Amino acid sequence: MSVPPQPTAPDREVELSVVICAYNEEDNVVPLWEEVRDVLEATGRSFEVILVDDGSTDATLDRLRAPAQADRRLIVLHLARNYGQTSALAAGIDRARGGLIALLDGDRQNDPHEIPTMMRRLEEGADLVCGWRRRRQDKWLRSWVSRQANALISQKTGLHLHDYGCTLKLIRAPVIKGVRFYGEMHRFIPALVHTEGARIVEMEVNHRPRVAGKSKYGLDRTFRVLLDIATVQFITRYRGQAMRYFGRWAWRLAGVAALFIIGGIVGSWMRDAAHWPPLLIVAGMLCLLSGILLVGMGLLGELGWRIYFEMEGRRPYRVAEVIGEDCEPASRGGGDREQQTAS
Is the distance from CB of 47 to CB of 16 less than 8 angstroms? Predict the structure, then answer.
């Protein structure tokens, strides 16, 4: 039997916030909330659970209303539409008040019983504990694609982890609060915080088979991740140094252009030369123009980074409804106006 709900902020400081994303998980959300609640109550720590309904079209939101109104520790964010897992996680992280933030999927495949162990690992000095689903309970194709993607991400980011795709993570709030997520960036959280000097450890976690609902995984997500890898590599290696990145390629093209132009000039002096010297000169001019364009892109990139660093960032989502929250968040982004229902 559950113990009476513990008071949360402002009555008592929240030690742990658990952010759960769900999309069309009507049969999973209530059992998951109850399981997370029971696990965390046993730790004796104050906590809150922020369950983000990512614009579900089934009865997910309706099934969460009663438990959210009955227990102040459960906060439900209903997004105006289906923004995707990255934006849903961002919405939950922005609302989190705990000093530690745990991330979970809403399909009940992540095991909440791992959270206390992850908290102990964090207390040993880590800033982020990443779950590693060593024995995945998924179809072989999905597991194989995931292994290849993890190897590629590790190579490109320089941070070697076995399982970038595991949502189950525990992280210190100050480390994650300053990170902005777009696209499929949620899987790159370790790489993004690693660039800020965060200490990261990986821990084997239990992975359970899906018992209700349908998987939202598709191969189209894999292609989106591949595109995001290039973005993350640029951010992690050249953040604030766009000219350095584009300038390297501009100098290389300038060198190639010089070789083509010199070859064309020398070839024009040869008697047996026919049409190829002018072609070399044209190719050299094209390479030179491409280099100039890259320099321009570098300047635009530098301007973009300056805007990013100096202006208030807008949130990539809009919250349509909040159930079960009795106070405003500490800070609110520059997104659209939200509708709040407090109970």
Answer: yes
pLDDT for position 211: 83
Helix 276-310 × helix 242-268 angle, to 10°: 170
Helical packing angle, 219-238 and 140-157, nearest 10°: 10
Phi, psi (deg, nearest 5) at residue 149 = -65, -40
Q: pTM for the full model?
A: 0.69
CB atoms within 10 A of CB 206: 16
Residue tagged 């777009």 (tokens) = 182
Report the candidate in 91, 86, 76, 96 with the shortest Cα–Cα distance to residue 175: 96
Mean pLDDT of the chain: 78
Q: Cα separations (Å) of 279 from 21, 44, 267, 293?
A: 58, 76, 10, 21
- C-alpha radius of gyration, the chain, whole number: 25
pLDDT digits (tens, 9 = 90+) for 149-167: 777 777 777 788 888 888 8
Residue 164 is encoded by which pair of tokens? Answer: 């970038």
C-alpha to C-alpha distance for 158 and 6, rounded to whole angstroms: 42
Strand ranges, E, within the chain: 16-22, 47-53, 74-79, 100-105, 128-132, 169-172, 200-204, 319-323
Helix and strand numbers, DSSP H then E, in the chain: 10, 8
What's the CA gap between 41 and 44, in Å, rounded? Answer: 6
List, in order, residues 6 or more apart from 102 with CB less than 8 Å away.
Answer: 16, 17, 18, 19, 115, 118, 168, 169, 170, 171
Half-sphere exposure of 159 (CA within 13 A, CB side): 25
What are the two backbone dihedrals, phi and then psi, of residue 87, each rounded to the nearest 5 degrees? -70, -35
Asked if 54 and 154 count as a contact pair (C-beta separation under 8 A), the reply is no
| Residue-wise pLDDT tens digits, 12-23 | 589 999 999 999
